[in-house]
């Protein structure tokens, strides 16, 4: 009885195919890397930072469908989130979540108010937010639609965010930024 050996080429091809399928599964459902192109999230994230985004925490989208996997938790105020830009679905944006469906948002004297209470947590209280754009005007309260998210960049002076283009549909949410992993001197957990 003779045992057939696989050719070296076949073993290589099988290994590459398995690695590719595994990598695509991880990227689609678990974790994905993104590069930060602008300074809209300074000082939290700067141009050139490469981050990892947890895609399963809010329920990863099943590719080529409108369906999602079950979420581990809902997005909450202060999360740094990656989402499909509402005005151009070919672009992904990253901003900080300020308010969710049903909440009211107002920017007064550089401070964000949600449901008439100032956000004084460290991720909001140490920043000045400018009254800009249609949704960020002085003395204007905005109510977030039931399935919407209101997001702002940490660098309010240089950020195109919900103040300009409105709300992010919940279905556009891709995941939560968890860590900066490149460049080495900037490695840290994102807060």
CATH fold-level topology? Umud Fragment, subunit A
Can you tell me the CATH class?
Answer: Mainly Beta
Q: Please, how many domains?
A: 1
How many alpha or pi helices? 3
Write the CATH architecture name: Ribbon
Question: How many E-type strands?
Answer: 12
Could you tell me how far the N terminus lies from the C terminus, measured between alpha carbons in angstroms?
A: 63 Å
Shape: elongated
The main β sheet shows up as: 8 strands, antiparallel
Average pLDDT for all residues: 93
Radius of gyration using CA atoms only: 20 Å
Q: Residue share in helices?
A: 10-25%
CATH superfamily: Umud Fragment, subunit A
Q: Strand share of the residues?
A: 25-35%
The helix/strand series, from N terminus to C terminus, equals: HEEEEEEEHEEHEEE
Helix-strand makeup class? alpha+beta
Low-confidence stretches: none
Question: What does this 3D model show about the protein?
Answer:
With 191 residues, the protein is α+β, with helices and mostly antiparallel strands. The chain has a single domain (32-189), classed as Umud Fragment, subunit A, CATH 2.10.109. Helices cover 16% and strands 29% of the residues. The protein contains three helices and twelve strands. The protein has helices at residues 8-29, 122-125, 162-165; strands at 31-35, 50-54, 80-84, 92-100, 104-108, 111-114, 117-118, 142-143, 148-152, 168-169, 173-182, 188-189. Strands 1, 2, 3, 4, 9, 10, 11 and 12 form an eight-stranded antiparallel beta sheet that branches. It has a four-stranded antiparallel beta sheet with strand order 7-6-5-8, with no helix packed on it. Strand 11 and strand 12 (188-189) form a beta hairpin. The longest helix has 22 residues, at 8-29. The chain is elongated and about 80 Å long. The protein starts with 7 loop residues before the first helix and ends with a strand. The model has no long low-confidence stretch (mean pLDDT 93).
């Amino acid at each position: 009885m003779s045992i057939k050996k696989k050719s070296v080429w076949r073993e290589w091809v099988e290994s590459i195919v398995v690695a590719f399928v595994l990598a695509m599964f991880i990227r689609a459902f678990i974790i994905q890397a993104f590069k930060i192109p602008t300074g809209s999230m300074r000082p939290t994230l700067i141009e050139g930072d490469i981050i990892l985004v947890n895609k399963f925490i809010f329920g990863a989208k099943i590719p080529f469908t409108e369906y999602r996997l079950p979420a581990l938790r809902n997005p909450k105020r202060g999360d740094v989130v990656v989402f499909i830009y509402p005005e151009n679905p070919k672009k992904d944006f990253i901003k900080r979540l300020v308010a969710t469906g049903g909440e009211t948002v107002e920017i007064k004297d550089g401070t964000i108010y949600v449901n008439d209470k100032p956000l004084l947590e460290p991720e909001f209280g140490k920043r000045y937010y400018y009254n800009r754009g249609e949704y960020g005007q002085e003395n204007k309260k905005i109510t977030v639609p039931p399935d919407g998210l209101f997001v702002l960049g940490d660098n309010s002076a240089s950020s195109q965010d919900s103040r300009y283009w409105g709300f992010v549909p919940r279905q556009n949410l891709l995941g939560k930024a968890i860590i900066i992993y490149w460049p080495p001197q900037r490695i840290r957990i994102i807060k």
